Amino acid sequence: MNPSVGGPVGGDETADGQGTAVSTTSAPTARPPAPRRRRWPWLLLAAAVVLGLLAVLLGPRLYARSQEGRAAAPLSSPAATAAATATAAAEDRALDGTWRVGGGTAGYRVDEVLNGRDVTVTGRTEQVGGELTVAGGQLTAGTVTVDLASVTTDSGARDGQFRRLLGVEANPAATFTLTGPVPLGGLDAGTTLAVTLPGTLSINGRERPVQVPATVERAAAGPVTVTGAAGVTWADFDVQAPDLGFVSVEDTGTVEFAVTATPA
Q1: Once rounded to an integer, what is the mean pLDDT over residues 205-216?
Q2: CA of 54: how far to CAs of 50, 112, 115, 116, 119, in Å?
Q3: How many CA atoms lie within 13 A of 90 on its CB side?
Q4: Which of 203, 206, 210, 209 lies closest to 228 in space, CA to CA?
Q5: Which of 44, 58, 95, 200 is deepest in the core (most CB within 10 A)?
Q6: Angle at 176 (CA atoms; ends 131, 178), nearest 5 degrees
Q7: Stretch 215-222: mean pLDDT
Q8: Is this model's pTM higher than 0.90 or not?
Q9: Which DSSP string corresponds to the chain?
Q10: Which residues of 219-229 are buried (b: 16+ CB within 10 A; e: fewer)?
């Protein structure tokens, strides 16, 4: 018999001992499944980008909203007594003498603009001192000194910047010095007198003349409280208002004080 007739085609066969042909052709090897691409790193990156954009867009608004109502109220005193007049000398000679400032509050008030939203910031300290002199029923001399290093707001970072901009390390105090007499006519015990205090204000080693609207309140028991506020332009004191792009500080602000003096 011709061995080529009926022979295997396309593969090898062998007999299994019983005359049955067995194919020796190997089965094709299956390929392993392709690994899946990990998407979570990209998802995390996208989430981080979204959160960053939200922080840029919403962060300043949330900060501005959180600051609403947190500014301290302006320092003030009772309304001036109608009968009081600042154009005549006081007739009560018990006022004459030296008065020592032994307590009170002083600080500043300034507006920040945060992405178009106005935020009022106040700094306060109780580290104040000074001396007043009354002669012939008039306030003839006076100084009020404020320890700038102790002025604080609700932000330590802002306080540090405030001290740096005002040169507190070299000029640790702000000082108001009276430069002209102020009549105290009508300042009887239990009354409040509206006055204008002419003087110089020293900040950052620079002095500028100021006219400070103020009140002088005389308690029945004797102490006198002087309360006033003066508008200032920071550049006049060689202080550059910071501008960080998303937040800027107005070029002007207010210096406020309410100090109590007793006979020395």
Answers
A1: 96
A2: 6, 22, 14, 17, 21
A3: 27
A4: 210
A5: 95
A6: 70
A7: 88
A8: no
A9: --TTTT--SSS-EEE-SSS-EEE-PPPPPPPPPPPPPP-HHHHHHHHHHHHHHHHHHHHHHHHHHHHTT-SPPPP--PPPPTT--SSS--S-GGG-EEEEEEEEEEEEEEEEEETTEEEEEEEEE--EEEEEEEETTEEEEEEEEEEGGG-B-S-HHHHHHHHHHTTTTT--EEEEEE-S-EE-TT--TTEEEEEEEEEEEEETTEEEEEEEEEEEEE-TTS-EEEEEEEEEEGGGGT-PPPB-SSEEEEEEEEEEEEEEEEE-
A10: eeeeebbbbbb
Residue 180: partners with Cβ closer than 8 Å, 6 or more residues away: 198, 199
Q: How far apart (Å, rounded) are the C-alpha atoms in residues 65 and 253?
A: 21
| Closest-CA residue to 174 (of 191, 149, 155, 157) | 149
Q: What is the pLDDT of residues 222-238, one digit of tens each?
A: 899 999 999 999 999 99
Q: What are phi and psi of 16, to 5 degrees?
A: -95, 15
Number of other CB atoms surrounding residue 262 within 10 Å: 14
100-135 pLDDT, tens per residue?
Answer: 999 899 999 999 877 677 888 999 999 999 999 999
Q: Say what the pLDDT of residue 84 is.
A: 73
Instruction: Output phi, psi for 134, to 5 deg.
Output: -115, 130
Cα(122)–Cα(242) distance, integer angstroms: 16
- In angstroms, the CA 224 to CA 220 distance is 9
Per DSSP bridges, beta strands 138-147 and 128-135 are: antiparallel
